[in-house]
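Annotators were shown the component list below and the corresponding predicted structure, then asked to write short factual statements about the assembly.
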Amino acid sequence: MEISIFGFSISAPSDVIAAWISTVIMGGIITFYVVKTNKFPLIWSYLRTTNHRKIGTLYILFGFLFFSRAGLDALLIRLQLAVPNNEFWLFQFEKYDQLFTTHGTMMIFFAAMPMLLGLMNIVVPLQIGARDLAFPFLNAVGFWLFFAGALIFNFSFFLNSAPGIGWTGYAPLSTSIFTPDVNSDYYVFGVQVSGLGTIFTALNLIVTIIRHRAPGMKWFRMPLFTWATFVTAIMILLAFTVLAIALYLLMFDRMFGTKFFSGPDGDPVYWQHLFWIFGHPEVYILALPAFGIFSDIIPTFSGKRIFGYSAMVFSIVLIGFLSFTVWAHHMLTVGLGPLLNTFFAITTMTIAVPTGIKIFNWLFTLQGGLIRFTVPMLFSLGFIPSFVMGGVTGVMLSVSAADFQFHDSQFVVAHFHYVILASTILGIFAGIYYYYPKMMGLRLDETLGKWHFWLFLIGYHLTFFPMHITGLNGMPRRVFTYDPGDGLTVTNFMSTIGAFLMGAGILFFFWNIFKTHRENEPVSDDPWNGRTLEWTVPSPSPEETFDPMPVVEGMDPLWIVKKEGREMRTTTDHRSTPIARDSILPVLMALSLAALTFCMIYQWFIASAIFAVGLFALFIVRSFTDEKKEHYGKGEAS
Amino acid sequence: MEMNAKEAELFRDKQIGFFIYLGVEALMFLTLFVTYFIFTPSSEGPHPSEIFDAMTVTLSSIFLLSSSGMLYFSEKALSSDKKKSMLVWLGVTFLFAVIFMVFEISEFSHFVSEGYTTSTSSFLSSYYVLVGLHAAHVLFGCFWMGVLFIQRFLPQFPKTLYYEKFKIFSYYWHFVDLVWIFIILIVYLRYLI
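Structure shown to annotators:
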């Protein structure tokens, strides 16, 4: 489409123009609302905050924004695939590539990861009796780096330069030989910047869990969500670091002519190894925190303690370990040879064992319990059978001989959506419904929540179950159409209907949030009759929590005192609180880095050098204005 | 340097956090070492033994590795509250780091002048991204030392906080030296003897 403004004529595809127009309108509405209700002090306080609950809320807010955007992409994909030989809007060929690349990359890096990190941020300190994360400033930096990365990645679409190389960015397609334009650079830099933030947040969570537990909160008294977070954070440090180097190498290949993934000695398969050494643990990085959430919700609404606590902890650790030994099952058809294929097939099958232990422990927790079917519980119950189905197809895929048939087909797409949606997305929704009182001081509406749950769950199965059959009937992934004679029409059309049911579920979620905030009915500290420490602090959790500091006397500390009908014991003898002070520096650092990378993408090296100087100047300002200055050097008195 | 209980506790947090961060850095370098190992030598371009110069490597190593010792003296002086000698040793550390950078830059520019750039071969690609990333760490350390130098003169800067910042820098610097030892062993030594 051609548009002419003030004599300049710009040509852009109509979807990009539609995105610009709707963004401007939305931006206008939000600005009007902000001005009218004078929300500036609130925005200013969130820009400068280092508090774990507020940062967690920001993570979830923006994660959900990108989830909606990536979900919209999914609907567009389904519309294009609804009927054979379809030409929906302009999503064919390259445009379709960009569509599924954006959908995948956004869902993994800018939707699922931030929403999980947000829940960890909010919940973990409250569960272990920490007053904040160990490094509040770094926590803000971590969030704003994610935000900067997402900003860069999203910007590509608005400039009609969305990457089209798949979320896996496989070489040689991702090298400058085949995609010389800036599109793929947006992928490289967007993911790199947000990955850096993820590493910092993971480090922060680890130190918090090691060092900031309340008196009596021994390792084997920690709630399972905290355990899952701890193991996940360690996995993030290992996996995202390898991804950072993979992207670093790809950046050099694209911009400075190095020969890692092309040329006479360069090897595209090396990219696959590096990517999946990150990529497979990443799947468990997404799943384990969700397991943790379910492991805390199911006991609460069964009125029983978790069955097999130590086996649950052990299986989390074992899954975390095994996830680093299976990466090449994504590469069974590359030609690594029968020996390696067998090795990776066997390790992959082994993961089913600890996962199975968890499934049975959840079932045994339910057995004989007084089950309350609240919305968080429904999401948890919906997760169990759905996830098992995804697990079963996972074992099918690990049979390397059979994988030659399944590989790169819609069957694979069905499999990983079954596992990731069931664990991560249902887990995130369960977590949001469960912890909304701690985030906002409100409880989401149960009736609308049930509409959300049932529409989403039915839509999910209707979308992805037929997709197995589509795949087995021969439809490859990442192609934009099929012939009427291929026998794929019925199952594809069913998938499209299912996708829209899921979309309808999300609309109910929006309505729910809107309704809950309009009615604005404050909720008690412990609305679910909870078992753990987070339900002892006020809703929403204040900036100063755990004063006085509780003493933990066993697993499920709140449940212990409820059973014995007494107050929780407290103490003044506890470790010192992390030092925090609101600061605008994290935002400025992240924005400088975003500006720097934006200039790098367009190879304006002088401009990026200027922003780099700015970034270093901010580091120096930070060092000179350290918030510890006011608290140190007081001698023994303080 | 006497820290009170609260400061010692917060310092310990930071120490553990920074050690974990150095673990992340170590993994980054490990991945680059593996990359170097896979792609060296290449079928095209020069063989590493043709271009590496034992003299440059030895001289630059002497300065960088001994700078760790200089920093140790500076730390000793800081612990016993000898401001002047602490600053002198920190200055020497800085100087040695700068000399190392001069050697490094001259080595790189020598290679480039002979036509051996990042795009010459996979070997040189992996050489530049590994040794270059290390050099960037040294450069960052130089600026960090500059900041520490200035902060020592600020009257309101609490001594215990300064000590904490100094210690964290020293971990960084010793780590960067350790990586250089691996660079000598894996990148250079195999092709020099």
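Statements collected:
1. Chain B touches chain A through 48 residues (CB under 8 Å).
2. The domain at 5-192 of chain B is CATH 1.20.120.80 (Four Helix Bundle (Hemerythrin (Met), subunit A)).
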